[in-house]
Amino acid sequence: MRLVMKFGGTAVDSGKKIVHITNLIKSYHDKGNEIIGVFSAVSGITDEILNVSGYVLKRDKKKIKDFINKTRSIHVDIINGSIKNKTYKNKALQVVDVLLKEMENILNGLVLLTEVTEKALDHLLSFGERLLTPIISYSLLDKGIDSVYLTGQEVGILTDSKFGQARPLIDTTKIRVKYHIDPLLKENKIPVITGFIGADQNGNITTLGRSGSDYTATIIAVCIDADEVWLWTDVNGLMTADRRIVKEAKVLKEVSFAEAIELSLFGAKYMHPRALEPVMDTKIPIRIRNAFNLSNEGTIISKNPTKSSQKIVKAIIAIRNTALIDVSGGGMVGAPGTAAKIFDALARQSVNIMMISQSPSESSISMVVKKDDLDTAITTLDLTLLDKVIKNVRVNEDVAVIAVVGSGMRGIKGIAAKVFSSVSKKNINVIMIAQGSSELNLAFVVNNSDCEKAVRSLHEAFILTKINQDFA
Ligand code: ADP
Ligand code: ASP
Ligand code: MG
Predict the structure, then answer these.
(1) pLDDT digit string (tens) for 229-257?
(2) Beta-sheet pairing, 441-447 with 430-435
(3) Cα–Cα distances in Å, from 91 out to 82, 142, 189, 262?
(4) Taking CA 401 as the corner, what is the angle to CA 398 and CA 404, rounded to the nearest 5 degrees?
(5) Handedness of CA 39, 44, 50, 53 (dihedral sign)
(6) DSSP type of residue 356
(7) How far is the CA of 467 from the centre of ligand 2 (A)?
(8) Is residue 308 assigned to a domain?
(9) Quick check: is 242 in a domain?
(10) Does the beta carbon of 236 lie inside 6 Å of ligand 2?
(11) What confidence tier does 172 reach under pLDDT thresholds 50, 70, 90?
């Protein structure tokens, strides 16, 4: 099989883990599979780079130096813990030093300008992934497996110039990636590719958005007609609920692309929200597996999961740290374009609206936003629309969105009744409700203090602890 294997930052944050995963890659390679590796940065590094760009703006050269030293020592420890052969070890150390020197020079240059543009930030962010791939490649060589490391740019991922959220220009990318990877596979080499990054038509480094390595993996997979994409991580797969809320939550064995997108839209933090786009129209399935628990087969996400797995409800998701904004005013009634004005004003300030509901009388609209966006949202509404389009803005700062997700809900009567009778039995007040017309999800808002109770009661009502037995 031709397998694209992506390893998340948590799977590669120590020398010991890297030894483990290079052995794992070797075992699949020895069985005759073609493997293409895609790697995130060491866990935490991307966040650190984001922090360091803040030090640039404060001209804090000491913090920048500390960052470089700390990053160096993290990677040197990983090298020492994962590569035995002296030559390979020295080569890896050398690459890390060259990259860090380059990064330090850039940072100091930016201090002079006291400015970090989006373009510069993407360039900086790329160092996270670029520091790790050579280490992985030399670790594979250390085990006698021929390997080459490449950046997203080198492998041919061409994107638009939307720094921080770039999208691949897929037709050219396909030709380029195939051109670079096919010969390597023919020579029995394992390409080790940086996740998260590409380059635009002018050769500027771009990033695909946080968690972008998942996206890189699926992009590469469609380019080279891979048989499967495996996302290796440190959890067993997609779950019926967050284990911190429902201890007995189970791993979902099969999920459809549509359901997985729904799960990611509702903030299940497991994957880049656009990661499934490239494979949606293909037969390439995605597996999510725990690199440290191979006995668990994980979750398989595919276009057409088996019929028996398409049961009613798959997962109960809770999104915390959200706030509800209610805008109202008699002037909104029968005034076309009110909603558009509101959403447009918020979109201009990059406020993402997670849920919307309008009363049939049209006199009020309720919206759920992330708490981080609340300040901006309120200020924007006050400044641009208050007393013009709307009269009142009310806020409930402490709510949670609960989403019930599963494709089997489509066209089945009584799901909503079951959901709401189950939460009302627990005395939970439902503040707002929305169901998409796809009927893949039913979402509602409760007070944050009721969140865990609501998730548990629904998990129980839909007997999700038995979900895997049902598939048998
Ligand atoms: P990174 O984001 O660092 O590249 P991963 O994407 O592999 O690494 O995962 C990071 C973290 O995201 C995991 O440690 C875990 O806490 C969470 N996570 C990943 N997949 C899932 C999942 N299927 N269900 C719940 N949490 C997940
Ligand atoms: N390192 C990047 C991030 O932290 C990309 C990824 O992990 O997939 O978002
Ligand atoms: Mg991730």
Answers:
(1) 999 988 888 889 988 899 999 999 999 99
(2) antiparallel
(3) 13, 12, 18, 44
(4) 160
(5) negative
(6) E
(7) 31
(8) no
(9) no
(10) no
(11) very high
